[in-house]
Each structure stands twice: as structure tokens, then as C-alpha cells.
# Entry
Amino acid sequence: MKFLSGMNPALRNIIICVATFITVATLCIAALILSANVDPDTIINSIRRDALALEQRGDYPIVISQQREDALISFAMPKYRYDGFTDGIMLLQSIPNRNLNALENAVRAPYHAIGDGTPGGDGTGGISPTQALLEYTADPLNSEQNRSYVLYWHGYVVPLRILLSFMSPTNIITLNIVVFLLLAILVFEAFRRTGGWTYGIGFILALLVTFAWITPMGFQFYTAFLLAFLATLVLWWLLQSKHGRRLIMPFFLALGMLTAFFDFLTTPLLTFLLPLVLYILWITKKGRSASIPSLIAKGAAWLVGYAGFWAMKWVMTAIVYSAVYANSEFGYAIAQRSGSADGGLMYRFNAIYNNLYQLLSLAPDGSIFPGPFFMIFFVSLAALAMLWWMLVKRSNTSMTQAKHALPMLLVATGPYVWYFVLAQHSTFHSWMTYRLQIASVLALIFFVLLSVDWAQFGKKETVASEAVSVEEKTSSKARLKGESQPKLDDKSKDGDFNV
# Structure
């Protein structure tokens, strides 16, 4: 790497990014292909041991349920559930197909599905993946893996296959919870060391508000949060040295690729936004403002990694199947998930409405329509903005400090851009995609903390009270002195006081 030291920085970054893309792509594809060689019987036996627990869990278990006929608010809402339906598909895909070679298993991601019209086809199919999982593991030799899912890499099957070789699904979920808590503590510490205790507490508050703490109770939601936490910790480590800071661009590129590999299209943008919040906080605490072009460049690196590596799955599908099949599947998926096949501009704004409603309402049952909801939302936002401005003026904060915090607002808008672009997916799955707004909540908390000079808050009142106290002491001394001297007339007394 010595020859890169004297090279133009821009050219050096391009070379490192290209090398990063090739390396990460090779490792991910190799891991996926190699994992297909895990013995299917071992995985089936591990899942079979948990048959009763999986059946009781069902497709959409509710984490918080408080349904009573006389209750004003029902908590048995989709926002409080996790996706056992997709977890069932993920577990089914973790079982390699005996009749396919390792490459075909990696590309096709076959699984067993049941229900009318289920045989054949691609994508999500069947009436209940949980029941299909129980049926297949009970009699795998007489059950057919009749569907495939070529649209994603399904890289999560790599750790699942390894863990299912010696652990049951319930034990893996327990491990998920433990790892989640440990990583959350470490991320809290990263924010605390970068900004202070209030920033660490702000992170915990954002986790609680968005119900992110339920994500490790399954498999689908967990991958994006796991990657986001790990990425934040790695970025914090890179920021500690000059050499590490040079690797931030390839870091975001690799992060986008890993997100495309492991995530099952839940909240993938979180893996970019959460580390970005830490990066902006680190820059701002150094007394500088994060450059908007620099932030956009990092976002472009993440997007190139995410979209570029996903496109490689398109190419591999064309090689294994055919170009016509790959084009039809991937082309339809892009049109469907973006919403271009379902509606216009209002449809995209409704996607934002659905996710905001899920975040802000305890019982998001659709009782408040988009028009009134947005009116209430923007009036409340204007009131909060006025309150923030009063805090800035009351604390006598310099405009330079306030401007340094502005990039946080850019991060806060990120989830809503995602909802706008992927409107169909964000509308249909708003009960889970709303958790992407943890980045918005965290960025807004940090914006308020950074843009107000809290050390100066109320300082004017303190100075004024001290001045009054000194004045009172002076007057008291003057009165005591006057008692031991002859009385002066009123004019002389006033004149003496004014001096």
C-alpha cells in the first residue's frame, strides 16, 4: 500500500473503493455458496426440536397486547408485533436443497410453501410459512421446496445455517437479545464518549420511542439493527486515528454492500444514517461543521455499495436462469416496491403519513386521515421550532454554533426520502418500516443538544441576581454606617447615594 501514499487523494479513494467492492463481493458470495454445504438434516433437527414453540408463536406474534372491550386504546396493533411470517421463510431458506448444487442454492434461495396456487413461482408465497416450516421439517423427504426467492441475496442464511447446526431457533432468539443489549450498551458508550452523557441517553430514548427494543425477538428486523450498531462502533474506532479517517469512504461502500447482502428489505437505510449521526456529532464536537457535499459523497458511497451489489444478484440470476427471467423479476420488483405501478404523488405522501402515524400514535388505527394528520403535525412542528428558537435566544447561542448543528436535520429527513422513493413497500409494511425513524428521532435530539449553548443558558439571570445581591450588601453597609454618624438632610443623602 506504500505506492498509494503519494497518490492524488481522489484517485487513491477510487482505487481503495474498487478494491473494497471486489473483496467484499467475493467474500460474501463465497460465504453464501459455502454455507449451502451445511448438512440439511442437522438444521432440520434443530428446527424440529422447537416445533411446539414455533407453532405457538405463529406468523405475527404481538409483543404488547392489551385488548379489552372497555379499553379506550387497544395496544394489539401491528406496530407492536414482529414478523413470524417472514421469519418462517428465512428458516425455510436456511435449509439447503439437496437436489441443487451450492451455486444454485445461493442464487435461487429455494423454500417450501403451502396453499392454493403455491407450487412454482418466485417471491413470497403460501398461506403460512410457519405451518409450511412445521410440515417440511416433519417430513422433508416427502415435501418439496417448490418456490424460490431470487430478488435478494438472503445473506442472513449464512449465520443461520451455522447457528442452527447446534442451536434451536428459540435459543438463537435468546442470543439475539443478549447481543442486542450488549451492542446497545457499546453504542451508548460511543455516543457518550463522543458527545457526553446526554447524547448517550438520547440514543436510549430513541430506542424506546421507536420500539426498536423488540427487533431481536425475531430474525427479520434484527439484521438491519445489528449491522447499524456494529457499523457505528467500527466508525467510532476509525475516527480515533488519522489513518482510520482515510478509510471512511470505503467503509460506507462496504457497509452498503453488507446491508444488501444481509438485510431482507426492512430498514436498510438505518445502517447508513445511524453511523452518520455519530460522524456529524464527532465533527461538530471538534468545533467544525460537517460539509454537506462530504455527507452526500458518503451517502453516494453507501448507495453505490447497496444498489451495486444488489444488481450483481440480478446478473447471477441471469446466468443461472436466463436474462429474460431476471429482467422480468427484478424489473417488476423495482416498479412494485417503489410504487410507480400503484399510484402517483399522493401515494408517496401517504407512505410518509403511514410511517409517521405508526411512530406518533399509540394506536395507529387510521382514525386520523392524512389531511388533518399533516395539519396537526406541521402546526406542532412549528410550535416546537418556536420553542427551540426561544431556547437559542435565551441561552444567547451564537449563530455559528446553531449552523454547525444543521447537518443533523439532513439526517432527520433521510427516512422520509426513503419512504417517498420506496412508497409501496413503505406503505404496506409501515408497521415495521416506521422504526427507520429512530434516525430522525436521534438526529433531532442531537440537533437540539448541539444548537443550544446550554452552558450559557440562564447566565444573564445569574449575573443580574449577583448584581442585585451586591447592591443590597452595599446599601446595608451604608445604612449601618449612617446610624453611627450625624443625620444628613434628604438632598445630601440622595447625592451621596448617587455617587
Notes: Residues 479 and 485 are 10 Å apart (CA to CA). The longest helix spans residues 292-320. Residues 13-163 form one domain.
